[in-house]
Amino acid sequence: MEHKSVLLKESIEMLQIKDDGIYVDCTLGRGGHSSEILKRCTKGHLYALDCDQSAIDESTKRLSGIGSNFTCIHTPFERLSQVLDEQGVSEVDGIIMDLGVSSPQFDDGSRGFSYRYDARLDMRMDQSQELDAWTVVNTYSQEELTGLLKSFGQEPFAHKIAQQIVQTRRKHPIDTTFQLVDVIKESLPQKVLNKKGHPAKRTFQAIRMEVNGELPQLESALHQGLHRLAVGGRLCVITFHSLEDRMVKQTFKQVATPPKVNRRLPVIGEERLEYRLINRKPILASEAELAENNRAHSAKLRGIERLRNFENEAK
User: Fold this and answer.
1) Would you list which residues are annotated within the binding site for S-adenosyl-L-methionine?
2) Which residues lie below 8 Å from residue 110, measured CB to CB, with a gap of 6+?
3) Residue 23, beta-bridge partner list
4) Residue 312 half-sphere exposure, CB side, CA atoms within 13 Å?
5) Where does S-adenosyl-L-methionine bind (predicted)?
């Protein structure tokens, strides 16, 4: 299945790309956002990051057909600041983060991301790392499994699923996605199994997020991105579930809200803020996009702009 970048038009418009700007695509994937940035940034430079080497290989070919002013780097985006330092870049005009798993990763059954294909439990975005889904499922304690299913999957039956996983692996390892699906189904009451939607969705999401360290990586990258924005620069983030969106919303709000002050003192207004929210409510996919791309249903776009750099002003 061809990968369609979600909220592509809206996110590119939000970035307000300058033809001589410096931009970072933190999640290159199959190059949907990077391609549109490169078309508009003819005199500047694009740095595109991805921890999946296959994404780097595929997208390098695609971007080469548009221009040569780009650099693709195989790395997790939590290394954003280190990458920019290595490239000799102090600040950038825009950053895009399109979170989650891409369609090619889900649709490649051998990667073990999907409960629709039978494959070895893997779920690594970066296939050079050691921790994979098999290790999580077969070595984490029942308490650890329960905790991550609750935290990352928001799974109401976390305890029962974790308990069943531990009981099953005492007899034999849980090696494949379908074996894990069977364990999950054994853990759930019939009324839940009869509901719409796949019963393994929350568990697979939780394990994937654990394997790839998705929330800690996002938290780190958000703060790095905010710090690296030039004045007038914008950071745009597309999320696909509530945990990601909450983190983005809270991080943006924290830096774009005036501090509380004594009511008897003059109010600190917009002129003393370093950042401003581009949109207070998330931008959602249009009806037309939803009809074309089912993945867009849970997508939310938020953006923030840097108004001034207090560090530079203090120098």
Assistant:
1) 31-33, 50, 77, 98, 105
2) 117, 119, 120, 122
3) 46, 94
4) 12
5) 31-33, 50, 77, 98, 105
Is there a single domain that holds both residue 180 and residue 230? no
In a 13 Å sphere around the CA of 247, the CA atoms on its Cβ side amount to 19
In the prediction, which pLDDT does 272 show? 76
Strands of the 229-239 sheet, one edge to the other: 70-74, 45-50, 22-25, 92-98, 229-239, 300-306, 275-277
Positions of the chain with pLDDT lower than 70, given as ranges? 1-3, 103-104, 260-271, 314-315
Q: Which residues are annotated as a binding site?
A: 31-33, 50, 77, 98, 105
Q: How far apart are CA 79 and CA 1, in angstroms?
A: 30
Structure tokens given for 58? 């595929």
Taking the whole predicted model, whether its pTM rises above 0.85 is answered as yes
Structure tokens at 156: 């109401």
Helix or strand run (H / E) with residue 135:
helix 133-139
The rounded distance, in Å, linking the Cα atoms of 78 and 49 is 10
Residues 218 and 198 in one domain: no
What is the domain extent for residue 80?
8-104+214-314
